[in-house]
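debug: dumping io for the single-chain case to check the tokenizer round-trip. Nothing else runs in this session.
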Amino acid sequence: MSWVAPVIVAAGAMILILLGRRLDRTVAGSGNPVVALHVRYQPVALLVALASVGLVRLLVPDHADYLAVGDWSASASGLGILGVADGDSWMTVGLTFLVIMTAVTALVVWLQVGRGRVSGSAVLLAVPWAVAFSIVNALTEELLFRLTIAEALGPVLAAGAVALISAVLFGIPHWFGNPGRLPGVLLAGFMGWFLTLSVLQTGGLGWAWAMHVVPDIVIFTMLVAAAQTARNRSVSVAAGVTR
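debug: decoded output
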């Protein structure tokens, strides 16, 4: 029954994509449509992730248990392609790649969303929303795409295979996300592979969540700021027309 987990995750991902699209149509004309969307989306998405975890644990009685912070300083392995030697501490690996993934994410999101579309004042106002959304979104996606796969398939497959399955399931839905299209799929796919290995090797979600939430803050900051900047400009244009 361990193979039921990818099906559950794929179904959960489809539900979230459809939910996001449906809600996106309902927030048109809101003060800040990104804020309005995620205030509605995030709580439901978290419930979907929790339901998926519960269903996998129910249907896979011999599952592993990674619902913990884990050992932040556990030894890393299988990351030689990234220049990480077997035995290096995840404390070093995690901090290094947190910086790298955040920088790469910032560049991609700036090119796709932020360039020429955000003002400095909008960025400052966006940060509190971005932090709140990122905390919940990272938890939701780590539960759905990492915990369920690691717990169900970790006991029966090699770590590399488990990580690859998570990468595919996490990467494909990001075609519709931000960053999106092929850059979004590749970036999310890499994160899915890398973060799954962190879960399996540290015994918990601590590093996976940390390396997910910080890039998410960058993404949500740009999205909220771009929406607010667009609204401010439209209000200014409308005010100028009515004078």
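debug: round-trip ok. Residues 206-242 form the longest helix (37 residues).
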